Amino acid sequence: MKQQICVESLFNGVEIITYQKLTIEQGVIQSITPFDSTAEKYLPGTLAAGFIDIQVNGGGGVLFNDATDISGITTIGEAHNLFGTTSWFPTLITDHINKMHRAADAVSDALKNNTTGVAGIHFEGPHISTLKNGVHEQSHIRPLSESEFSLYTREDIGQVIVTLDADRVSDRDIHRLSEQGVIVCQGHSNASYARASSALAAGARGFTHLFNAMSQLNSREPGMVGAALNHPESFYGIILDGIHVHEAAAKIAYEANPHLLLVTDAMPPVGSNQTEFHFFGEDIRVNNNRLINAEGRLAGSLLNMNQAVMNCSQWLNLSVEKSLNLSSLQVAKFINKVTELGTITPGKKANLVLLDDQLQVQRCWIEGRKIR
What we know:
- By secondary structure, the chain is of the alpha/beta class.
- The protein has ten helices and 20 strands.
- The protein starts with a strand and ends with a strand.
């Protein structure tokens, strides 16, 4: 079925242009043409490519680890769709191998049913450091085995992202994973600058939530943060909520390496009225806009992608265009989907978000289907 959307402004990934009409058919953008604003009705605001979030642990009151089925994925996805996220990765935090298989099966089902913009799956752990595990359950932390490798290389679960510790996984195995199309990110690790750099050379492509749960940049040992910023070909996510990373640190990182990806690391309260939830026997509570356990340790975030984009524009003093690209085009490049996602261009999926002058989401579409 063919549909048309007329908008006041459109950001195509390069520039903002006014009074444009999109023709969409079978979920794909067919054409973009100017129209006479005095003769046709149009939507006020700026239309941009939908946001892509590679790290979503939960939302809508649901934690993916506790709801590894299509119902759980649907609830989480619908919560984030409201904030302009049109492509996302259900993220499983370190868990038992059986839970990992159930999560993969759920994502496979979601992809077959074209559910809420699921693009793949992110396994955050279990091959991480016990020194930098954060709230990840230590009893499930383990080396990479053939069981996990066969899981990560399944062909029915979309793009797979794996966060691991380069001190726990060899360069040989990192290369082996990347050769099979798995995107390897370094995170929850105390690896040295040299070790992190070696992992990048072996095929690792990025870093999970830069600055958090990793070795820091110091004068004599630059650590993982130094490796991320001194290797401009690498990508890195930042949780830009003003809690996980100071805005000045984020700005310094961007100026050193512009391959920043906006991520949420969102937990169940996002998109819900929930103020606490259980996680591996711990009570996680909302306290002063933070999610913390009984020890006061951060446990994910309350951030959504719409807020991340607004924070990026304000705190990093970036243009609207650059801020939007850090939530769309840049991420599409990272997940190898730039031919399908990330810009408003004929031939790409009609994953769209309409924003007002304050960058607040007004409407949202996934493959041409209006979801808000």
